[in-house]
Amino acid sequence: MKREFICILCPNSCRITTEYDNNGIKKIEGAQCKKGKEFINNEIENPLRIFTGSVLCEGGDYRLVSVKTTKSILKKYMKQIALKTHQIKLKAPVEIGQVIVPNIMGLDINLVATRRVRKFH
Amino acid sequence: MIKKDVVIIGGGAAGLAAAVSCREKGIEDILIIERESALGGILKQCIHDGFGLIKFQHSYTGPEYAHKYVDQVEKQKIPYFLDSMVIDITNQKVLTVVNKSGLKKYKAKSIILAMGCRERTRGAIGIPGSRPAGIYTAGVAQNLINIHNYMIGKEVVILGSGDIGLIMARRLILEGATVKMVLELLPYGSGLPRNFNQCLFDYDIPLYLNHTVVNIRGDQRVESITMAKVDARGEAIPSTCKDVSCDTLMLSVGLIPENELTKMAGIKLDPLTGGALVDEYGQTTVNGIFACGNVLQVHDIVDNVSLEAEYVACGVEKYLSSFLKPKNDICIELGEGLQYVLPQRMQFLDDTVFSLRVSKPGQKKKLVFKNDKSIIKQKTFLRVNPAEMIRIKLTTQELSGTNGLKVDLES
Amino acid sequence: MRSQDRKFDIIIIGAGVIGCSIARELSRFKVRVAVLEKESDVGWGASCRGSGVIHAGFNNQPGTLMARYCVKGNQSFHKIAEELNIPYKKIGKLVVAKKSNEIPALEKLKKQGKINGVENLKIVGESEIRNMEPNLQGIAALYSPETAITSPFLYTIALAENSLQNSVQFFLNTQVKKITKNNKSQFYLLAHDNQFEASYIINCTGVCSDQIAGMAGIPHYRIYPCRGEYYVLDKNAASLMNHLIYPVPHPKEGGLGIHLTPTVDGNILIGPSNEYIEKQEDYAVTMEVLRKLCLEAQQFLPAISPKYFIKNYAGIRSKQTPPSQGGYHDYIIEESPEVPNMINLIGIESPGLTAAQPIAEKVVSIIDKKEKLVHNQDFDPYRKGILRFAEQDEETQRRLIQEDSDYGEVICRCEQITKKEILQAMDNPLGARSLISIKYRARAMMGRCQGGYCLTRIMELLREKYNYKWDDFLLRGAESYMLTGNRSNGESDL
């Protein structure tokens, strides 16, 4: 099978064409770095994405803390994790990098805060 | 009147980077004036990642990227006002600032314009139909969802394939809404290619190129829109009209640099960029007033905003130490295949980073810089795209002796 | 609400500029007056959708009520504007001839104006036009210095607020569904689950006036809705013109032709267009008309370009003449013989805004003849509007912020509207708190970014001050929900 992918890892947005079959990838063309090659390996079998979203926070100068997964997770989990963020309510203060949900989806990946929220006066 | 060496209007990505850079160069007397209740500008609501890949070789979210600079501003004790609006500015660099403490006037030696941009609205593009609730520009939708915890709709049609629209398409889906389609007027997408991948294709959201919205229906709330294919001139083809039921129309139809203050100061604008006419240091047609960030040209990557702001800080430093005496006045001639080029004029023939955008997507193109005698630089690109700004540096050596400069995109 | 609370001497149906003018005039007397309005705010029919012009009166046929009331309304408007604290600018109008065969029409208008009592009309030539309007193309024009502009929505709101001050009661979101009479000649009006009672009804329902008359048993009025679409141009276009600019009117058309109107806030309006429509209240704008408006405007002012456009909207005229006829039919302001004590105002189209005050005085005189109304010694004609920070000089701005720091927070960047003004708009005496109601009162969201910056801030203020939940945010009508829910509640959604 032949397929063209757009790599999402950096602004170069390399157009990478691959040829593969059930035995694996035969050819990769167009990647400008090895991260790109890695990306393609995953894209075919287990597409990975970074999840970003937000969770409620009480008592702070922001109503929502923006969050992200520390590493990319399987694309198919994105909606599940989004649902999970709806169930969380934090209390200010929150620091950038603070772990909100450790080992999300039972993986070695945390959901961390990406915004600092100070206590509201 | 209070005197200041540098006043920076806007504490978003551009203003913050300019401030930090100015301080790094030893400028003490800086003031950032920010209209919102916190620094960071639009980055505060851009909770997705992809920021910082060039500058920091890391993928940050908007708030994290902003925090890097806000942290520096705090650490370096760079003064800033929040909830403060500049309501007037003169070509003598006198600013009138309004906030809860009163109305104050500042006489600045130099000003950095960093006011960012606003979104193009339904009214500006004249979409026919009724005016119900449920019509939002993508930035407003983003603010309502990411800052205020509201949902703006359940069944959304998006007009415009700019980055904000694509990012919001994904956000809406993850937050439980249905995104029925993205319609794009042009024959090609307006956003970054990787955003089409991770925001539309990932979620099976159909993209219709060469399409637009020709009617909105609904008395109280949006009930449906009419989509139509457009011809080569962008005119809707009546036989292709099709109704799509939805409760929300989200618009991502372009950003406009917010230059009302710029005009007040008598600064000349470039109709091609929507921003000020500048020299290689980002200095406008009023000496000592500089511009950087989205107010100068609409950017697609925040890293470039920071780099542009750092360059402007160089100019400000030179200006304040009186080392910015113009030696030339060369207008850059815009050749074929390009929407615009910045700067529009050269005064110093120092190292210059040129920013430009191509007019149409293309493959295997060559960017050529010519002076009146010969080609001084050229670069080939495998792929060019209006959505992706090209930045290219020409050195003092390459520019020396130039009397006129022309930029072309050749095949 | 107790049934006594719904019993009035006079009930006005329709809180447009006509209904509110009548309410105010009646409040000069000792009568219990109520105004029933089906929308969530006053003026949302034709009143807030017109060009806001206070016409001089040369366009109207001599001897008609239109002519008489227009001239009278124009000549006394400065007084009302002062009492109600609303904008009023006498900028004058040019009716422009582009071809020499249009000049006789100008002469005719001038003559007609003179008969009607309009002052200072003058025909000017090409060079004088150039002096007055450097960007305008025309060979001759009728210059009417007495033509003025106001803000049609602030006028209507001010009339309502002054009426409230003088004890008139307003019932918003109250649509009359049924009108009956008992054997004592008392009217019963059914609106939702509320029954109102009154000795007199005044029907000022504009495009619905034939329907309301029909409800009371008067079948012979007929309104033909005729829609007019508009462009609103950025304030940056204001330098293109100084006066109202109109083409020579053509008698067959049901309007004045597409014209260019500066607004009191510094925008320019292009329009209205002219189109008889089927549906009574279809305020949509259409592709065909928008295109036509743009082209026709450019015929007068070639400098007009789409880069100035910030909004489109539409209004609907209550015409009494059918499409085949066009033209005008004089105002009907009468107590019909079939239903005594019900005064019907039919076909109050342009110059309705200008004529509102004289019309109200006429209606009061009809009632006074029958009832011998007693003056209300406590009547106060003065009403204070919201002070516009952006229009004050620097000294005043400084002082205002010192006195109230809410003046120091600019919320609407494009129009420089402060938090104080927005809070005042929210806290209005009518209790109208949809986003559009706040917009009309404070002017926020009317600038070039159309709320891009200030909308979310205004919503936050509503949440802070009135504890708004997601379903309290309405754009305009009672079902115009801005949001579909909270993003999350911090609990399981399952």
Task: Give me a quick take on this structure.
The complex is a heterotrimer of chains A (121), B (411) and C (494). By secondary structure, chain B is an alpha/beta fold.
The first-to-last residue Cα distance of chain B is 56 Å
Under CATH, the topology of the largest domain in chain B is which? FAD/NAD(P)-binding domain
Number of domains of chain A: 2
**Largest beta sheet of chain A: what is the strand line-up?**
8-5-6-10-9
Share of residues in helices of chain B: 10-25%
Structural class of chain B: alpha/beta
Per DSSP, the total helix count of chain B is: 9
Query: Which percent bin holds the helix content of chain A?
Result: 10-25%
Major β-sheet annotation of chain B: 7 strands, mixed
Silhouette of chain A:
elongated
H/E order of the elements of chain A? EEEHEEEEHEEE
Strand content of chain A: 35-45%
User: How many β-strand stretches of chain A?
Assistant: 10
Pair of chains with the largest interface and how many residues each contributes: B-C, 51 and 55 residues
Q: Which oligomeric state applies? A: heterotrimer
Jot down its keywords.
heterotrimer; A: 121 residues; alpha+beta; CPE0013-like fold; 5-stranded mixed sheet; 3-stranded antiparallel sheet; 2 helices; 17% helix; elongated; C: 494 residues; FAD/NAD(P)-binding domain; 5-stranded antiparallel sheet
Report on the structure:
The complex is a heterotrimer of chains A (121), B (411) and C (494). Chain A is of the alpha+beta class and 121 residues long. Chain A has helices at residues 34-45, 78-85; strands at residues 2-6, 15-21, 24-29, 48-49, 52-58, 64-69, 73-74, 89-91, 99-101, 111-113. In chain A, strands 8-5-6-10-9 form a 5-stranded mixed sheet, with no helix packed on it. In chain A, 36% of the residues are buried. The mean pLDDT of chain A is 89. Chain B has helices at residues 13-24, 62-75, 122-125, 138-146, 163-174, 193-200, 260-264, 302-320, 396-399, and strands at residues 2-9, 30-33, 49-51, 60-61, 80-81, 85-89, 94-99, 102-113, 117-119, 135-137, 150-151, 155-159, 178-183, 207-208, 211-217, 224-229, 242-245, 248-251, 255-257, 289-291, 330-334, 338-342, 345-346, 352-358, 362-371, 375-384, 390-394, 405-410. In chain B, strands 1, 2, 5, 6, 7, 8 and 20 form a 7-stranded mixed sheet that branches. In chain B, strands 10-18-12-13-14 form a 5-stranded parallel sheet. A 5-stranded mixed sheet of chain B has the order 23-21-28-25-26, with no helix packed on it. In chain B, helix 4 (138-146) packs parallel to helix 5 (163-174). Chain B is globular. Chain C is of the alpha+beta class. Chain C has 3 domains: 1-89 and 150-223 and 320-385, FAD/NAD(P)-binding domain, CATH 3.50.50; 90-149 and 224-317, D-Amino Acid Oxidase, Chain A, domain 2, CATH 3.30.9; 389-472, no CATH class. In chain C, strand 10 (176-181) and strand 11 (187-191) form a beta hairpin. In chain C, helix 1 packs parallel to helix 9. The mean pLDDT of chain C is 94. Chain A binds chain B through residues 5-11, 13, 15, 47, 49-50, 52-54, 56, 61-64, 66-68, 75, 78-79, 82, 96, 114-116, and chain B through 37-38, 44, 47-49, 53-54, 59-64, 67, 146-149, 173-176, 192-194, 196-198, 202, 301, 383, 388. Strand 11 of chain B pairs antiparallel with strand 23 of chain C.
